[in-house]
Design brief:
The chain is mainly alpha-helical and 130 residues long. The chain has 7 helices and 3 strands. It has helices at 4-8, 12-24, 29-35, 42-55, 75-91, 95-105, 112-127; strands at residues 27-28, 58-63, 66-71. A hairpin with a 2-residue loop joins strand 2 (58-63) and strand 3.
Amino acid sequence: MRGRKALTSLSRRERQIMDVLYRDRQATAAEVLAALPDPPGYSAVRAMLRILETKGHVRHVADGTRYVYLPTVARERAGRPALAGVLETFFDGSTEKAVAALLDLSPGKLSDEELDRLSHLIDQARLEGR
């Protein structure tokens, strides 16, 4: 792994490609191309997959004459540095502001189980001094 900086340095299109790979668990360049909104050309997708491979986000395996691309980092692990960037950029580093915004965006009422889990996470953070 190339470290935290590599995980956060994805362009919009690279994030879209990673979304496809995380959703499908693996894909060829043609499959990625078919899944992208407003897709670029095939050669552009192949170039971006090579860049993602250089950055350490994907790897490929040969399947006959084609390459099948797979993510190398678990989605949750890759998302943490991205979320940290959003927290810093849009919420002045404030977890409280970010959680409040997420609660405002919540499409429906949170279930009692979800509220209990959130409460447990808050209690755990207190115990750990976070």
